[in-house]
TrEMBL record:
This is Sigma-54 factor interaction domain-containing protein. It holds the Pfam family HTH_8. Gene3D superfamilies: 1.10.8.60, Homeodomain-like (1.10.10.60). The keyword Iron does not apply. Residues 121-182 form the Sigma-54 factor interaction domain. It comes from Amycolatopsis rhizosphaerae. The keyword Cell cycle does not apply. One of its GO terms (biological process) is regulation of DNA-templated transcription. SUPFAM superfamilies: Homeodomain-like, P-loop containing nucleoside triphosphate hydrolases. Keywords: ATP-binding, Nucleotide-binding, Transcription, Transcription regulation. InterPro entries: AAA_lid_NorR, Homeodomain-like_sf, HTH_Fis, P-loop_NTPase, Sigma_54_int, Sigma_54_int_dom_CS.
Length: 259
């Protein structure tokens, strides 16, 4: 299932895609590239590679007409090299150029300025903000896993999936669906087919919007800090004691924080 309609490769020469990992950034870039070959240049490698060598590789690739150069995780790039990318964009490279980055509100200023120079920008929402689409996404993923062998998700399964924070986004949902698809289920996927940590209780499924948002924020913070409760509490602006109390009240088990 694609995260978003791909941009028109005929119109756009440059693309800037933002979003959390797993939201479909690679899918969007592949749609942009179409049939043209892609060459990925990891921006994080600029942190360990000699800057002049990395800049030389970019210049060589940017000069190749008919190629799509993908600068992956460009928010990790040193500021000095971001200036170089800006100059490359201003010159109008022969190759088409796509960049992926973290959500726009977390971009360093030098990298954020690159988006304004691109023909197209695409901001991909996290799955937790797209829960209304989750049933259709899950069904499309299941159809891809089991072509010609339809599987129906029960209402309780869809409710349980809708109660998850999905820190891994579409990638995480796809892994859950693939796990269900590998099981004999007779055309119906019920609660027994879900991994235990995704079987939200009836209480969790009845949570109001505010409590569900709080539960999702806590699990996402725990996931971001590899289950470290002290660091997660600091990010959330609460004490560790309060975090433990809210985890108990919202039925957040330790394993919910680590995928």
């Amino acid at each position: 299932a694609q995260a978003a309609p791909p941009p028109d490769p005929v119109v756009a020469r440059t693309l800037f895609v933002t979003g959390e990992p797993g939201t479909g950034r690679s899918t969007a870039v592949a749609g942009f590239a179409g049939d043209d070959p892609m060459v990925v240049l990891d921006a994080a490698s600029a942190l360990t590679e000699e800057p002049g060598r990395w800049a030389g590789r970019l210049a060589t690739l940017a000069a190749q007409d008919g190629t799509v150069v993908v600068l992956d995780d460009i928010h990790l790039m040193p500021e000095g090299l971001a200036v170089l990318v800006r100059e490359t964009l201003d010159r109008g490279p022969a190759a088409r150029l796509a960049m992926t980055a973290c959500p726009a509100d977390r971009l360093p200023p030098a990298v954020a300025g690159l988006a304004a120079r691109c023909d197209r920008t695409l901001a991909l929402a996290p799955l937790r903000d797209r829960l209304a689409e989750l049933p259709a996404l899950a069904e499309a993923m299941m159809a891809a896993e089991r072509p010609g062998r339809p599987v129906r998700f029960t209402g309780h399964v869809l409710e349980a999936l809708g109660a998850q924070p999905w820190p891994g986004n579409l990638r995480e949902l796809r892994a859950v669906v693939a796990g269900i698809a590998r099981q004999p289920c007779g055309g119906v996927a019920d609660m027994d087919r879900l991994p235990p940590r995704y079987r939200a209780s009836a209480k969790v499924r009845r949570l109001g919007g505010r409590e569900l948002a709080e539960r999702n924020a806590i699990i996402t913070a725990l996931y971001a800090h590899d289950g470290n409760k002290l660091r997660a509490a600091r990010e959330l602006g609460i004490s560790r004691t309060t975090l433990y109390r809210r985890m108990q009240a919202l039925e957040i088990a330790d394993e919910c924080s680590v995928l």
